[in-house]
Amino acid sequence: xxxxxxxxxxxxxxxxxxxxxxxxxxxxxxxxxxxxxxxxxxxxxxxxxxxxxxxxxxxxxxxxxxxxxxxxxxxxxxxxxxxxxxxxxxxxxxxxxxxxxxxxxxxxxxxxxxxxxxxxx
Length: 121
Description:
Layout: E1 2-5, E2 8-11, E3 19-25, E4 36-43, E5 59-67, E6 75-80, E7 84-92, E8 96-105, E9 117-120
Parallel strand pairs: 1-3
Antiparallel strand pairs: 1-2, 3-4, 4-7, 5-6, 5-8, 8-9
């Protein structure tokens, strides 16, 4: 997962997909209240947690969980099925925000969360 905010970037692993975070001001989808936003992008996984193949037609979508602390990521944004995915979470206040992504299959089964990433705005 590539995390990018301002001039710094950090490369980390992700269980489900590759994702990029970049923080900036401005609008988008998934409003929370402030005037900052973060854009997340990732690729859909090709397999399930047990190693079985996950076909594109079996993807139901994704859930992005986020919050202002690792212990309180109670905000939720549902994202439709996609292969190369991108969503902007807007309405964020200044500070550090934490995010993870979960895959939802066509039966509504939710994967384990990806690794948590953060963005400082």
